[in-house]
Structures are given as structure tokens and as C-alpha cells.
Amino acid sequence: MPRGGKAYSAVKRCMVIDDVPKNGLRELCALKYYQNKGPQITLQKPTAADSIYRVNTSIAQPRFAVDGSTEPNVYKQSCFHSDNNVPSWWIVDLLRDYTIVEVKITNRDRFSYRLSNFTVDIFSGSQDPRTITNWPMNFGAVCHHQRVEDGHLGASETRTLTCNSPTSGRYVRVVKYSLEPLTICEVGYL
């Protein structure tokens, strides 16, 4: 079994070998290990945000970004949508530290241009970063910055954003410093 303090799943694969002249039928099995990755790390974890879309708060809850659905239609209660605040931010508490290498983000189907010029940062430790002085202007360890010149995520696109370096942390935030709503349909971590 692999080592290193990471969570793994084992899958058993077997095949039958016809070796009748010598020993008859035999079953040959092997275990393949896969590192547990993806949305299950974030699935149904506690979330918060600076604001919720005021036109219809029931369709835009922060928890919808970790519900396991990549449905890109905001009106199907599957995406988080903030108001027009500066900064707009969304955060998830992973409940313990993880080493994060990549972050997957799914954009909405309409107004996709809004998901640009944002930062994904990571905060470690047991202290909720929202209690830090000058929150939300303080940054955690920056995992990824999507600059304006990098463009925006496409409509309904799920993009894997590779962190600048593997970063350990418990709280992961997406923050945007422009006067447009922040909309995220799903967030997963690898």
C-alpha cells in the first residue's frame, strides 16, 4: 500500500487464467491504489461568503458550490452567486488541513466573463481566517491568480487550476476584487 499520510482507495482487479494442463483454472488478482482526490474533499463542507445574490437568495447559496453538482445554471440552485461587492469572496472550511495541489472550478453557463481576475488562496490552522484583522483584504498562501490578461473561464467550463506550489491548509477562499458578482458552480480540490 502507498505511504505518505494521504488517503487512498484500493480497487481489486481479477482475471481467470486457463491453465488446465497444469493446474486447471486459476484466478489472478492485483490491487491498484488510487489517491483519493476531487470533490469529495469539499463535498457538503461548511461554506460562507461576503454576500448572496439579493434578487433571489434561495438560488445562490454558498453551499451550492460544494454540492457535488457541476450544473452550470444558477437558476437550478446549483451555483453560488454573490452581490456586486468589492471584494466578493467565497470560502470553504475543509475541517482539517489538506495539501492542495490543484483546484477545480466550474463556471456558470451565462455571464461567464465574470469569472476572471480572481485569486484562490489557502489559510492553514484552526483559526477561522474571517476573524483576522483586515479580513478580507489579507491574503492566505496564494494557490492561483487568474489575471485579467489570462482571460475568463468559459461558459459551463470546469477548469483545473494548478497551485504555484503544493500548499497545506484548511480554509480555501476564492476572492475577486472587481465590481462584478462572483459566481461559482462547483469547487473541488486535488
TrEMBL record:
InterPro entries: BG_Antigen-Binding_Lectin, FTP1, Galactose-bd-like_sf. This is Fucolectin. Belongs to the fucolectin family. One of its GO terms (biological process) is regulation of cellular defense response. Keywords: Calcium, Disulfide bond, Lectin, Metal-binding. Homotrimer. Pfam families: F5_F8_type_C_2. One of its GO terms (molecular function) is metal ion binding. Residues 38-188 form the Fucolectin tachylectin-4 pentraxin-1 domain. SUPFAM superfamilies: Galactose-binding domain-like. Acts as a defensive agent. Recognizes blood group fucosylated oligosaccharides including A, B, H and Lewis B-type antigens. Does not recognize Lewis A antigen and has low affinity for monovalent haptens.
